[in-house]
Amino acid sequence: MFHDCRGLEITAASDVAVAAFDKTIISYLGIQPDAGPNLKAIFEADPDMVMAHVLKSYFFMLMATRPLQDRSQKAAADARLRADGATAREQLHVDAAEHWSHGRKRAAIALWEAILVANPLDALALRLAHHGHFYEGDGQNLRDTITRRMFAWTPDTPGYGYVKGMQAFGYEETHNYEGALKAGHEAVECIPENPWAIHAVAHVHEMRDEPDTGIAWIQKNQPNWIAANNFRYHLWWHRMLMHVDRAEYDLVLKHYDEDIWDPESDEYLDHVNNAALLQRLELHGQDVGERWDALADKCRGHKTDQSLAFIDVHHAISLSAAGGDDAKELLASMNNYVENSGDDNARSTETLGLPLAEALVAYREGDYDFVVDTMLPIRYELHRIGGSHAQRDLFSMVLIDATLKSGRTNVAKMLTSERLGRLPQNAWSLAKASAAGIEG
After folding, report:
1. Residue 1 has what pLDDT?
2. Closest Cα partner for 235 from 267, 206, 278, 265?
3. How far is residue 1's CA from residue 17's CA, in Å, rounded to a whole number?
4. SS3 sequence of 225-250
5. β-strand 9-10 against 2-3: which pairing, if any?
6. Which long-range contacts (CB under 8 A, 24 or more apart) does 31-39 make?
């Protein structure tokens, strides 16, 4: 029996296979572009390693597209064929891969949590549980799945800095900003090349409406995140949100074109980043030109994915902005998915994703009453489609703008007053409050 770098038993043919597995996990935790090649190296060393097939299944699901979900199911089935001699922990991973690849995400999360009870140093289960709780909108477990394992981790444990970065993000999403800053800075001091931790601290500055400090933090750490995989575009996105808050719109468009927009990328987070930034610019009264058309060209290939409601609602923004029938086709596909699928995401799509997508399309069409009538009753439930507070803040901005454009002044006063309670110096919030008739 072999052991990984944190001492967990692992079924493998050689030390070479185990070393390749450890290297792949570090690449995943560090959001590095070599995770795929490192996974390939595991297979070259040990084609029958059960955790290699499990990891392949997980990686396909992380891409969140329907065609890759089919490949994830195949990889999970391949893992099952090799599971007889695996450890109990590895067999639970096989179970989790099967559940997740068939749309039973909550069952997979429960299994990762079960793994971590006996194996708190299982970095893969820990990162996946963190990811799963994030897209369930479960901020408390996003935080606590990490904090309840910290007793087992020390600064000498391989990957400790990555775990502290996860803890920082969990603290931030539960509004413990001081705890997030402390954990985030420790994480970066431990492992400077730590995009998730750098991003967690950036979130704190976004939520505190501290654009100057946030921009300085992201710029200072740019050498440590610029080599990340496509997640580096998300760090650029965070910086651009802060430049939007400073009304530096020409600079934002310049960086959008040069540092965020990737004409070759078809990854969902890039689509989300792009849609969210362009929509915010328009909410700030800026003309983004024909950029919507190029983004919509990418989104058209994903109208029938329905992997995550959070992704679909951003596709609704992009497709409706470009015009044509694509947004209506997306809504029809989402409705068909709700009626014919029994997976976990279908329920989130039914209750939240589809109504929100319909409202976002209606906003583009100028039906502001529909937007308000649809979004107002569900706004406190929208966290359940996943994403961060910073990402979902876009929906709050759309709703406020719709209340003003529909002439619902009293509702606009309530919502802008509410927002000012959280962001009292935010220029956009102050402008909307003034438009609603709230005197400064």
Report:
1. 81
2. 206
3. 12
4. HCCCCCHHHHHHHHHHHHHHHCCCHH
5. antiparallel
6. 31/195, 31/196, 31/228, 31/229, 31/231, 32/193, 32/227, 32/228, 32/229, 33/227, 33/228, 33/229, 35/59, 35/229
- Interhelix angle 291-299/268-283, rounded to 10 degrees, is 150
The rounded distance, in Å, linking the Cα atoms of 436 and 415 is 10
- Residue 3 is classified by DSSP as E
Residues in Cβ contact with 38 at an 8 Å cutoff, skipping those fewer than 6 apart: 20, 23, 24, 27
Domain spans, the chain:
261-407
Dihedral angle of Cα 167, 168, 173, 178, to the nearest 10 degrees: 130
CA 344/CA 308 separation, integer angstroms: 10
Task: Please name every residue paired with 3 in a beta bridge, in sequence order, or none if there are none.
Answer: 9
> Where do the H-state alpha helices sit in 246-284?
249-255, 268-283
What are the beta bridge partners of residue 2?
Answer: 10
Can you read off the two tokens belonging to residue 308?
A: 């995550």
pLDDT score, position 397: 98
> Helices in 8-159 by DSSP H: which ranges?
15-29, 35-45, 50-62, 66-81, 88-101, 105-118, 123-135, 139-147
Q: How far does CA 215 lie from the centroid of its chain? A: 21
As a whole number of angstroms, the distance between CA 52 and CA 65 comes to: 21
| Rounded alpha-carbon distances, angstroms, from residue 193 to 27, 161, 189, 221, 227 | 11, 10, 9, 9, 9
C-alpha to C-alpha distance for 386 and 105, rounded to whole angstroms: 13
How confident is the model at residue 439, as a pLDDT? 78
Mean pLDDT of the chain: 97
DSSP bridge partners of 9: 3
pLDDT over threshold 80, residue 440:
no
pLDDT at residue 366, rounded to an integer: 98
pLDDT in tens, 375-400: 999 999 999 999 999 999 999 999 99
- Residues in CB range of 176: below 8 A, 6 or more apart: 143
